[in-house]
Each structure stands twice: as C-alpha cells, then as structure tokens.
Design brief:
alpha/beta, single chain
Length: about 525
C-alpha cells in the first residue's frame, strides 16, 4: 500500500516533535508499505528545523520514510505570523497536489491539527483515486475558541469551521485520538460509522534498549538529590499554560511551608507528632520510639515544652514506627494496612474523582513496613525538564518566592528520556480545568511516564482518565494545590515496593494498549487497509 500522510507539524528523531506521524509511518514501512510524510519546514514544536536554505522543497529519507519538507516562514506564538506559516504550507501543498497524486497513494491522510489541510488532501485523493482520511488531534476551531478565547465570528475561526465541516462530510474515515469526540464530529456532519479512536502511543523499542546517558549536570543534580534523601517529583515536557505547572509550584510552596511549620512547632530533637505518639504509647507500653536524626539516641531526657521533661525511660531507635493510629497529621507514619482492602483509598483530602484512591490492593513484600518518617515528613525536590512559553515566568517565580527545592532542566534528546524519568520517584501530569476536555484527552507524555514505571499524579477533569484506567497512581481535581500537595505526600509515604507496583501497572497498561505496533495496525484496519502492500 502507498500512504501519503500530510501533517504540518510532523517531526522525527532528528528534528524533534511531533513524533506520532513518524512512529506510525515507521511501523507501516516495517510492514512493507510505502509512506511519504509531507510537513512544513518551520514548526514551534521541533527542536531542529530541516535545512532547506533557499529551496522551496526538500526530500529526505528518514528510517525508510520519504519526508517532503515544504518551505514556510518562521513564527513565534499564535499571532499573525503563525497564520502566515499555515497559509504558506497550504499554498505549497496545493501547488504540489498533482505531483503527489502522480505517486498514486492508496490512502491520503490529512492530519495537521488544524483541519484546513483537508482541501488539498481531498484534491490529491480525488486525482489519485485514493481513500481520504481525516485525523483529529485537537478539535479545531473549538480549541482556539475555548482555550484561546477567540471569537467564533473571527474570520480565521470561520475558515477553520468550514474546513472541519468539509472534513467531517467528505472523509471516508475519521481517526480521533480523543475518545469522546463523536458527538462533536457528528454535529458537524460526520456519519457515525466513519469514526475510529486510535490514541497516542509509545514506541516500546525505545524502552527495550539501554537508555542513553544523561548529560553530566543532570546526573549530578539527580545524584545530589538522592544523597540528600529527597523524594523527586518530576515533570518532563512542554512548559505552557495548559500544563498547569503553576499548580505544581503552588504545591511545592505548600509542602515547603508545611516542613517549615513542623520544624518550628517541634522542639530540637523531638518532632511534635512523634512526641504526641510517645505520650500515648508510653502510657500503654512503658516505652516509645521517637524518630529523630540518624544514629542519635535520646540518652538525656527530652524537653516537651519549657520546663517539661519526658520520662527517662523514653528512648529512640532508628527505623521505629509510630503507633498505627497516629495518622491525623503530616509527618505521621501511615497505618501498615493502608490499601489492604480492594478499593481502599489514601486517607486525607485527595478528591473523590475517578482514580483518586488506589483501586486495587498494593502488595507489600513479606515483612516490609511503610517507611519510618521523621516528624518533619518526607523531603521533596521538584524537577521540571523541558522548555516552553511559560518557562521563564516559572523560573522568575521560583527565584522571587525562594522555592529552593525546585530545579529546571533544559530540553533533552528523546533518547535520554528513559534515564531522566528513571530518576523520578513520582511523575506529575496536570491540566487546566477546561470544558474542552469533555471530549477526552490523549497526552503524548503519559506513554513515557507509564513505560518508565513511575507512579503518576494526574490532575485532570476530563471525560477519560488513562491513569485511573491503568491504576498506576492518583487522580485529583485540576488546579487544586492542596489536593496536589496531599497526593504527593501520600504517594511518598508508600513503601518503595508499593510505588514500584503502581509503576508496573502503568508499564503493563502501556504495553497492552499504547504500543505503536498495535496502533499502526488498528489505524490501517480502520481505513480499510488490511490487505498486503501492492505497490
């Protein structure tokens, strides 16, 4: 089969995002099909632009995929320059339509996020006698209306709406990464039988080989955080408004303040929560164990308040746990029976949204106990890797507010992502509260989080929740810093084995449902392209 995939923003391992067209095309090539990807030379998503110099068109072979880059002007942001970039791509694609049709594609896929590429794609398909496929990434023009605040009467929005209507009416097949987009697409003219859902996926081969080493400064940072006993909460990806990283910084602030407040509340050597447990346990057992500092024994009487002393027989041993009933304040050791009942959730204020509780029992290794914590609670570090339009504002906020536990990492090559995520203890994925997500979500980065076998905190209010489906972490309400801080603290207080079990659930889910080898076959089956390649 001969496949033409039109995607303005298509990338590759050489150029950076977006990767979905490359991964699908690579699997089709491996299956014996011929694939050409047509993309614009300039995209805000890519790390490296193809080098066209003064040429209008550049053909390039990448892993057996025939790429054709069409020259377009550079741009920043979402203003008039981006509109000029889109217009230039569509004009060059239209000019190329007869030449592309002469290659006799069997499938022509219009997949450029914005739907206006449906017009040149339809012309190519008609000239070639090919089937026409419309692939939906985001709902345009609904996305710029609801997320960008554009007026439905804006000329650009009217144009995009006409394009979406044409795509819904004329495409032979509609592929959506959004699992609940049917009602919207049907309202704009799509026959229900045309729709098939193929989500974003993950390339398992990239996780089955040894990861590329991290740059030395990143390795040094992660090693130093480990040496300090920090629990690393990480995010890797674009740093824009939609990613809700300001909520993550709010949660970091709350956790930093909690640490400070507990430190001020507790007198030297005796955390207040441990002291409360001691007084209760001493009355019942004649003895209590106080977490203090590594290697320290409280040989001397320990002060409670000015002038007060604990009994001389109250001593300390490293690793001793607080009584199981002491769970009502930050810093208390959680009960050992946590989540031993099916459906039991973590205690506290994690909202009761889908997946908010750990949905199935988390096993513990024989004899393994929840980690003993000091009264000051776990110590956290927050690592944000990547780039984006909000990064500088986030960095300024960290500096102004003195968030000493937040660290930024420059964008890394994709081959380094497995090693980076392997350095996280907890992965964060957040969203804004937006009505648009009623049609569902399919985040790119989640596949990598799952394959890294990291427990995930998912701050979302959407029609679907892959983290809840996988049972690999906690789902909480979006834009709620207190809920996020509580969720971080509660995952931190699981045993390492319990966090490992959560991570393994995610990896297993990704292998079963998000493997691009599976998704590429599903895509062609949905398009009627199940037969052997004939050209």
């Amino acid at each position: 089969m001969n496949i033409l995939l039109i995607n303005h923003y298509a990338g590759s391992p050489l150029h950076g995002m977006e990767y979905r067209p490359y991964y699908l095309a690579r699997e089709w090539v491996k299956a014996g099909h011929r694939v050409r990807i047509v993309a614009a030379s300039q995209s805000h998503l890519r790390t490296h632009a193809p080098q066209l110099a003064t040429r209008a068109v550049l053909d390039e072979d990448i892993d057996g995929i025939a790429y054709r880059w069409l020259a377009t002007p550079s741009y920043d942001g979402n203003g008039i320059r981006r509109a000029a970039n889109i217009a230039a791509f569509l004009a060059r694609l239209t000019a190329q339509s007869a030449q592309l049709a002469a290659e006799r594609p069997d499938l022509v896929i219009a997949s450029s996020t914005y739907p206006a590429d449906i017009w040149p794609a339809r012309r190519i398909a008609r000239l070639a006698g090919a089937r026409l496929v419309f692939e939906v990434h985001d709902l345009w023009p609904l996305s710029p209306i609801e997320l960008g605040g554009m007026s439905p009467r804006h000329p650009f929005i009217r144009l995009m709406q006409a394009a979406e209507n044409a795509a819904c009416r004329h495409a032979d097949t509609v592929i959506s990464i959004l699992p609940h987009a049917a009602s919207h697409l049907i309202a704009h003219g799509m026959a229900p039988h045309k729709l098939h859902v193929v989500p974003n996926g993950v390339a398992l081969a990239e996780w089955e080989r040894a990861p590329a080493p991290l740059p030395a400064p990143v390795t040094t940072l992660l090693d130093s955080l480990r040496a300090e006993g920090r629990m690393v909460v990480g995010y890797a990806g674009s740093q824009g408004r939609a990613n809700a990283l300001d909520t993550l910084l709010d949660a970091a602030t709350l956790l930093q303040h909690r640490q400070r407040d507990l430190h001020e509340e507790a007198l030297p050597g005796t955390p207040a929560i441990a002291l409360a447990a001691t007084l209760s346990a001493a009355a019942q057992q004649g003895r209590a164990r106080l977490p203090d500092r590594p290697g320290a024994d409280l040989a001397e009487p320990t002060p409670d308040r000015p002038g007060a002393r604990l009994p001389d027989h109250v001593t300390y041993r490293l690793g001793a746990a607080l009584p199981e009933h002491v769970t009502d304040r930050l810093g208390a050791t959680l009960p050992h029976h946590l989540t031993d009942k099916p459906g039991a959730g973590l205690p506290g204020h994690v909202p009761n949204s889908p997946g908010a509780g750990l949905p199935r029992p988390l096993p513990k290794r024989p004899g393994e106990r929840l980690p003993a914590q000091s009264g000051h609670g776990p110590r956290f570090a927050f690592v944000l890797a990547g780039d984006g339009p909000e990064k500088q504002a986030l960095q300024r906020r960290v500096d102004v507010e003195g968030l000493r536990d937040v660290h930024f990492i420059a964008p890394l090559p994709k081959a380094c992502i497995p090693a980076l995520l392997g350095g996280f203890d907890i992965a964060y994925l957040g969203w804004r509260r937006q009505p648009l997500y009623r049609y569902g979500i399919s985040p790119n980065k989640l596949g990598d989080y799952l394959m890294a076998a990291r427990p995930v905190i998912h701050a979302v209010d959407a029609a679907n929740d892959p983290v809840a489906d996988a049972g690999c972490g906690l789902s909480i309400a979006p834009e709620d810093p207190a809920a996020l801080a509580d969720a971080i603290d509660r995952l931190a207080r699981l045993t390492p084995w319990q966090r490992h079990e959560l991570g393994q659930r995610g990896a297993s889910y990704a292998r079963r449902h998000l493997d691009y080898r599976l998704l590429a076959r599903r895509f062609l089956e949905a398009c009627g392209g199940t037969g052997p390649p004939d050209r």
